[in-house]
Amino acid sequence: MNLVQLVDLNARKFGDKDCLRCEGQSYSFTQVKEDAEKVAGLLQSWGVKKGDRVGLMSFNTPDYVKVFYGTMKAGAVVVPINHKLAAPEAEYILEHSESKAFFFDATLAEVAGKVGSGGKKVAIGGEAEGYDSLAGQLAASLPDYVPVEISDEDYAEILYTSGTTGKPKGCLHSHRNVVFAGITGALCMKMDEHDRMLMAMPIWHSSPLNNWFIGAQYVGACTVLLREYHPLHFLQAIQEEKCTIYFGAPVSYLLPLQMIPNFEEYDLSSMRCWIYGGGPISSDVALRLMESYESDNFYQVYGMTESGPTGTVLYPEEQVKKAGSIGCKALPGADILVMKNESEEAGPGETGEIWLKADCMMEGYYKDPEATREAFHQGWYKSGDVARVDEDGYLFIVDRTKDMIVSGGENVYSKEVEDALATHPDVVEAAVVGKPHEEWGEMVTAFIVIKEGSELNEDALKEHLTAHLAKYKIPREMHFVQELPHTPTGKVKKFELREQLT
User: Fold this and answer.
1) Could you say which of 150, 170, 204 is where a domain stops?
2) What total number of domains does the chain contain?
């Protein structure tokens, strides 16, 4: 099945049933199909053809879904863009993908105005001065939509990575890839048409989009769109819309506990699955969440944009006993290895790189065959994530391979050093990289942000680390900085830090 068939099938099967809910308004499966075909007709009137790319930069709105599906009905490829990007970053993606049209949320008009590429520009979700609006365009007399023949192997999306090691790379996903990513999400959480998926994380992210939105679509469930995450609106949406499933970063669970004084007054009893990803939580935090949310149905999922995403899951009964782990086995439709090298698997107590195979694995990086070749070995995707295998076969992420420092023949995992630095009460944030060194190969080097007013210095911090790390892991060089460079999704741009050292 492809995504165009899915839209058509849902309209036939579910008709007037709610496909979307947003700000108290309903959008049926039939309405979503009809609106998508109007968008497809609009794109066709601009000359957009099968295989062309269309940029889409928006918050979680019904217009996002209309354009997402409408692009595919026109036979084109959706290029979701992080709505937090600055104009040069968005422009790079539009230029690299050679997008023929650019739909942007009306509140992002200032960014859109600074973007010099992307073809025809149209505001969605409202009006933007100086630009046509989607509502206005669809209200005009348009040529009828002409159905386009779509195969499961045709491209559906180009999802761009966050660019922590350089320029973002575009992950090419076919219709088949995306549908399988949705099936994986639906199977994992045992979704059905009675579920109500809360979409509060950005829908342009790979997991919210492919695992959870498409997963809900595959079974005919309703998706409740929250324009943008806010701790109060998050609780209100669950209570008022009787949501049953939610996926979010760990911080999205903690913020309501910190910021909403009457948290316990909200009725969250409709929820049956609390899913988190993007980082592990400790056993203490797991217990706190279970107590506060009055539920033990927490799931941690692990994957990456390249894999659909799909990967592994840590189930509710494992949350405390194996806190910090990403689980011990791959999800349905996927397989996983932990490799010490290209021919030897890691055993209990050993570390290695996570390799993945999946039905929803990307077709490759767009316009980058060299990077695609480097990413795979005999059909396995080399994730770049280094994991430790415990005695029960559970995996614990310890680092990224590109962040591993080889100093004097010893492997130093930067995350381990960063975690040790974070134990000092005056350290706000730290990033560790390797600095080229003639004798040792690399020298462990830290960039550290400390609390305002703190008098913490290098000697005191090194003394603190002696209780946490072997001597060879303690940074030989420390740089105290005001802030670290981050991508719009919050990851530290370590390549920029390395550039400062060369």
Assistant:
1) 150
2) 3
The reply to whether 416 and 392 lie within a common domain is no
Q: Which of 60, 121, 135 is nearest to 91 (CA)?
A: 121
469 in the Ramachandran plot: left (φ > 0), alpha (ψ -120 to 50) or beta?
A: beta
Which residues contact residue 470 at a Cβ distance below 8 angstroms, ignoring those fewer than 6 apart? Answer: none
Residue 171 lies in a domain: no
Kindly tell me the burial class for residue 149, based on how many C-beta atoms sit within 10 Å of its own C-beta (0-12, 13-18, 19 or more): exposed
The answer to whether residue 388 is domain-embedded is yes
Q: Which two tokens stand for residue 242?
A: 């009787």
Question: Residue 320 has which token pair?
Answer: 């405390």
- Structure-token pair, residue 373: 């070749």
CA pair distance 309, 33, nearest whole angstrom: 25
Q: Is the peptide bond before 309 cis (omega within 30 degrees of 0)?
A: yes
User: pLDDT for 443-478, tens place per residue?
Assistant: 999 999 999 999 999 999 999 999 888 888 999 999
> Which pair of structure tokens corresponds to residue 483?
């802030």
Per the structure, the complete domain to which residue 490 belongs is given by 408-501
361: Cβ–Cβ under 8 A, 6 or more apart, which residues?
Answer: 177, 306, 307, 308, 381
Judge whether residue 165 has pLDDT over 80: no
Where do we find the tokens 């190969």?
Answer: 441
Q: What's the Cα-to-Cα distance from 213 to each of 183, 309, 479, rounded to whole Å?
A: 11, 13, 43
How far apart CA 494 and CA 441 sit, in angstroms, is 18
Residue 213, both tokens:
């939105």
pTM: 0.88
Q: Given a cut of 90, is residue 209 above it in pLDDT?
A: yes
224 touches 22 (CB < 8 A): yes
Q: Is the dihedral of CA 356, 362, 366, 367 positive or negative?
A: positive
User: Which value, to the nearest 10 degrees, does the dihedral of the CA atoms of residues 173, 178, 180, 183 take?
Assistant: 160
Residue 285 CA neighbour count, 13 Å, CB half: 17
3-state secondary structure of 277: strand
Neighbours of 493 (CB within 10 A): 18
| pLDDT band per the 50, 70, 90 thresholds, residue 116 | confident
